[in-house]
Write a structure and sequence with these properties.
Shape: elongated
Distance between the termini: 115 Å
Radius of gyration: 36 Å
CATH topology of the largest domain: Heat Shock Protein 90
Structural class: alpha+beta
Strand order of the largest sheet: 5-4-3-6-2-1-7-8
Number of helices: 19
Largest sheet: 8 strands, mixed
Low-confidence stretches: 4-9, 88-93, 106-113, 304-309
Strand content: 15-25%
Helix content: 25-40%
CATH architecture of the largest domain: 2-Layer Sandwich
Length: 600
């Protein structure tokens, strides 16, 4: 058996690095400034108390050059050979090992030794002028055109530090506005002063490095607008500081929700040692938190070799779980400590929270006691409080209507029955979820006929005719025959209120299924599409009139039945827009007929 050593030929690997390693050419400036930051940080560790460090970026459009200069640790000729000429050699890692420093206390940005070569994505050649901090060190000049060869000789630099001179071949990187944009995007939070000409790029420290107790509301809002200049003020924020088993700091904001927001899009900005990496970090957060804004910074998240994207591993999964827990804990603490503030922000954050409850079992366990709904009594309530106030009710009644003045809802109000005002299709899915975990039962007020809204005395006093039928059952049959809708069932009931002539009753399970299909943008099965019950109120005067007309003037009775049915569709938001013009025509004709009859 023979053994050998794999050999890497630089003439083959350099083109790959230049073309495929990085997802964007813009990355080159981030990498070179990060290297300069590392060079300064190394010297700061060796010479405690040293100051006046800076990084300078100089653009000369005429000469087509861009220079990145630092007054950091510098390099000797041997170090240039080791750190620049050997691909994938990590200078930061060797430095830490040599000086036995703790990387958790003194993290460096560079880890792969490949960042320098990103310069060749935009340059036809690169020069290095460097002078080591070591006593009696000699300056070094290194040049390369990106091929497998380079030249090294004595340099001309007279002060400690390093100059990286790029001979730019990509015209867009000779524009001052472009360079300023890249520096602001990637390097605005680095601790060492960065100058582009006379302009200081990094004028502020990121707010996440401060303790939450030292940050004011104004601080948080101003920082939010520095990240998202055009957005309205955030609703709420959470300051994150994780020390174990990973190091992560950041601030997450609940934005003001709008109809244009896409929950599948990620917006949180990921930083590594204060250097911007990406906002494509969906794996770092549970899916339902993608809508959040803010910044997260960590030096030990598993980035890919180009430091452009996040790699999934157990650390990321644990962190995602921890962030979800942190958000739930912060919100439940606010619910307990400042109920007024919690209630004020709830309408803006409830969609995110409800998505979390539907998608994350642990999040559900932590947050389910802090769920709020508005009620017809004009207050906000949890389900536990609702049950305490209504101990005799077997069901939790709810409505999807925003208005509290609907005729059907008045039935419940007149009986003093408290009804939850749900916010939309997501609530019905959530109710179904809660029912599987508890003994609670939810019923939409138009999803059934509860005994609480029936006139039991009148129902029981109805007499049977010779065929064993009541007046109500005969009226229901007449309405069914004249409605001419085979998919619609008809029932005649005596309701406790005389104000409502009729309503549509759609079975609770069918309704929820319909709303689920709408939520998932799927088509409801045709057999369920129009299946419902038309309930007529025998205590209503108009229905009593129809009952009288069914023998004398059945044609007019039929028109009134159709009109009442259409009005029920309208009031319960089940009316199809395509039928509106024909409804108006029928209504006008009916009114004309009734007026002519009254004038006869």
């Amino acid at each position: 058996m023979a053994e050998g050593t794999l050999k890497i030929h630089t003439e083959n690997i350099l083109p790959i690095i230049k073309k495929w390693l990085y997802s964007s050419k813009d990355i080159f400036l981030r990498e070179l400034v990060s290297n300069a930051q590392d060079a300064i940080q190394k010297l700061m560790l060796l010479e405690e108390g040293a100051s006046s460090f800076r990084i300078d970026i100089t653009l000369d459009a005429e000469k087509k050059t861009l220079q990145i200069s630092d007054n950091g640790i510098g390099m000797t000729a041997d170090e240039v050979e080791k750190y620049i000429a050997q691909l994938a050699f990590s200078g930061a890692e060797e430095f830490l090992a040599a000086y036995k420093k703790d990387e958790e206390e003194n993290p460096f940005i560079g880890h792969f030794g490949l960042g320098f070569y990103s310069a060749f994505m935009v340059s036809h050649s690169v020069e290095i002028q460097t002078l080591s901090y070591q006593e009696n060190a000699k300056p070094v000049h290194w040049t390369s055109d990106g091929s497998s060869t380079y030249q090294i000789e004595e340099g001309s630099r007279t002060t400690r530090g390093t100059d990286i001179l790029l001979h730019i071949q990509e015209e867009e990187f000779l524009e001052a506005a472009k360079i300023r944009e890249l520096l602001t995007t990637y390097c605005r939070f680095l601790p060492v002063p960065i100058f582009f000409g006379e302009e200081r790029i990094n004028k502020e420290d990121p707010l996440w490095i401060k303790a939450a107790k030292d940050c004011t509301e104004t601080d948080y809002i101003n920082f939010y607008h520095s990240l998202y200049p055009l957005e309205p003020n955030p609703i709420f924020w959470i300051h994150i500081n994780v020390e174990h088993p990973f190091h992560v700091k950041g601030i997450l904001y609940f934005p003001k929700m709008s109809s244009e927001m896409r929950l599948q899009d990620a917006h949180i900005k990921l930083f590594s040692n204060r250097v911007y990496v990406t906002d494509e970090c969906k794996d770092l957060f549970p899916h339902f938190l993608n809508v959040l804004r803010g910044a997260v910074d960590s030096f030990d998240l598993p980035l890919n070799v180009s430091r452009s994207t996040l790699q999934m591993d157990s650390t990321v999964k644990k962190l995602a779980s921890h962030i979800s827990k942190k958000i739930a804990d912060r919100l439940t603490a606010l619910y307990e400590e400042d109920r007024e503030k919690y209630t004020a922000i709830w309408p803006e954050i409830q969609t995110i929270i409800k998505l979390g409850l539907l998608n994350d079992e642990k999040f559900y366990d932590r947050m389910q006691g802090s769920l709020l709904w508005k009620t017809t009594n004009d207050n906000w309530t949890t389900l536990a409080s609702y049950q305490e106030r209504n101990p005799s009710q077997k069901k939790v009644f709810y409505t999807m209507y925003e208005t509290k003045e609907s005729p059907f809802l008045s039935l419940y109000k007149e009986k003093g029955i408290e009804v939850l005002i749900a916010g939309g299709p997501l609530d019905s899915v959530l109710f179904n979820n809660i029912e599987t975990k508890t003994e609670l039962e939810f019923q939409r007020i138009d999803g059934g006929i509860d005994d609480l809204i029936l006139d039991s005395d009148k129902q029981e006093s109805e007499l049977l005719d010779a065929d064993g039928r009541t007046d109500s059952s005969k009226l229901a049959s007449f309405v069914k025959e004249n409605l001419s809708k085979s998919e619609v069932s008809v029932e005649a009931k005596a309701l406790t209120s005389s104000n409502l002539p009729a309503f549509l009753m759609i079975d609770e399970k069918t309704r929820r299924l319909s709303e689920y299909f709408a939520l998932t943008q799927k088509d409801l099965p045709k057999e369920l599409l129009k299946k419902h019950t038309f309930v007529i109120n025998t205590n209503n005067k108009l229905i009593a009139t129809i009952n009288q007309l069914k023998e004398k003037e059945p044609t007019l009775a039929k028109k009134l039945i159709e009109h009442i049915y259409d009005l029920s569709l309208l009031s319960q938001k089940e009316f199809q827009a395509d039928n509106l013009s024909s409804f108006v025509e029928r209504s006008n004709a009916l009114v004309e007929e009734l007026v002519s009859r009254s004038n006869a």
